[in-house]
Structure prediction request, 773 residues.
Amino acid sequence: MREVGLLGLVAIAFGAGSYVATRDANQSLTWFHALNLAGGSLALLVAALASLGRLRAAAQPGLRAVLGRGLLGVLGAVALAVGLERAAHWSGLEFDWTLERLYVLSEATEMGLAELDEPVRATLYYDEEDPRARSTRLLLRALAATGRVETAEKKLGASPEEEDRFEVGSSNTVVVRLGDRFESVARPTEGTFYEALYRLRSLDSGLVYMARGTGEGDIERTADDGFSGLAQALLTEGYRIRSFVPAQGTPIPPEVDALVWLAPRRRLPETTLAEVRRYLAGGGRLVVFLEPGVESGLEEVIAEWGLRSPDAVLVDPASGRMDGDAPGVNPLAFHYGSHPISRGLGASRMTFFRGARSFELRKPEVEDDLWSVVLASSRSWLAEDLEVLERRSPPLRPASARSDYHPLVVAGRYQREAGETRIVAFGDADLASNRHLRTLYNLDLTLNAVHWVASREPAIKLLPKARVAGGDQFALPIQNTLTRFYGLGLLLPELLLMAGALVWVRTRSA
Amino acid sequence: MTPFWALVRKELAVLFGSPLAYVVLTLVALVSSLIFFDHLRIYNQILFVFASTTMGGFETDTIPDYVNLRDQVFFPVMENLGFVLILLVPMITMRIFAEERSRGTDELLVTTLLTPSQIVLAKFAVTFAFVALMMAASFVYPALAIREGGLGLEHLLAVFLGLLFHAFGLAALGLACSAFSRTQLVAAVGALALGFVLWDFSWASGFLSEGVIRFLEGIALHPHYRFFAEGVVILSHLAYFVGLVIVCFALARFSYDLRRVAG
Prediction:
């Protein structure tokens, strides 16, 4: 009867296998599948019944107890296995070993979800053949574990009216709904989910003025050198953005939560500088991005507040050559001062600057607070010759240049009679450009600077990365590894086979 | 030396004295490396096509998000290797119990101081040690390649852990089949068929009810195994494989009782 059981198993395996192999072309069961599956199951049943019958006939009463204990042991093992699996399931323990910790929610997402009055509904629209749906499911699972997201799945094409209404254009789209409002996320990652969530919440975080008219970075420009990404990120965080043209002589209203000045290329008129001085003296809030080689007048204004920036290029030998530029002129910063803006940043969370100037701090008044927020490495020095930005050869350090932790971003807080003034100054504007805003932790640093200046410290956080899939889109050194595989790589199988041959020869001769 | 350790030593000597074990080790090392490097080659080719200057390069977001290590390398490698193991593991497990039964030496073992549980435990332990060695040999080159690329070593570890537990599960199934067979061929075919049937039941979703499918998916290998390829190690999936080993151990132990009763 064992043979019958074995034949049954083989028949089931062939029935299932052929069905799996042909189901794409033929959705229904054919006579071959059905015959194998039914015949196999029947054979297994007959074999099992025959075995039981044989046991009953063969077993003496004394041996039945042995058999009973054995069967109880098997049943106990099944119960233990099920219990173990259920207990592990109940514990909910799981470990994310992906390169970018794709399924561990960031503090920002958890904060955003916790602030909601009602749960968010997230529905995945997927095609069965779409491999990306696997990781999206894991992301939704992590979101559902917070208890603030209700998840569901729908096959693409199953509800066409709903898909039209929610603008579902392709497989692996998640529709996020909050009340009557919805957002469609076509490339679901934690970052894009977070952004959708913030758009749905319609927060009002404050009013940001973006200065323009004297060659500042353009927040409407979507090219690499534009700053549309920064504007979009500020909108996502709930800020209202207004353009501010100082040349028109309009005063800066006191209700502005942050005035952002993106590296003016020309010198500002004296009237404008006077207006900025007046605004700051009245408890103004300024985030200013400077560039080496430009003296717009803002450098003089912030110097009056103790943030002096000599017109020199910071060279950090700890950073290598990038994009063909001279080595060291594009610093990768990994030293951070103790300040709310740099909370969470550290040696493994770097920020990238492209051609930057540095700062020197000197308190205007004893009670003022000044901080170096981001610093270059201890080997950095300042090159007064701005031509180093144009050359490709390594800059030569003059004997007079001092190596030190030169600040790249500084902050100041000043208590005055008219109110509290806050200033954050960046030695580079490129880090906030579309090209580099999402490089490393540049976006986090920039947004957190605005949050701090606007006195919104609770909003300071590290954001989930929007393009996580790109994180592992690196080319591996294939030629190198292939060469090793065909050379050294075949050594292990060869040695194993040789060992097998030796064992075989010895067994035969023994 | 206690009788248990003497049996473990003997089993190790028998296993490593068999040329077939080395052939299987060689096959696993070779097949896993070939599968891995082939997927890696294809992944790199696709990546370079998309990243070429004519297509816009990395900066312009033209590389589709499905072109990544997870979807193009880790997942297909694990799917293929998982299936290959269904074929290879029974070659190791088929003789562990069945050979002794066919020669009648199992009767001698039972007459020693060893209990049936200890005999089964020794055979399981030795087989699992060999399977672990087999998986380690299969992962030398993938680990080297990933380390040289400077990424995803932890993810690869998750893949390795999944494959290791999957192989343990298959070995346990194979040992249970061997324990109930007199001939090695029957044990091997039984383990192969059982592994194949238990692999996945999603194919039956077209004609079985949702409840039945959910139950079948609960006992199938693939639904518990596939998450490791995503780089996520879920405790309940590890517990599933441990549970499978416990049940197979109990079944192998039961085969001794059955023999006492039914002969």
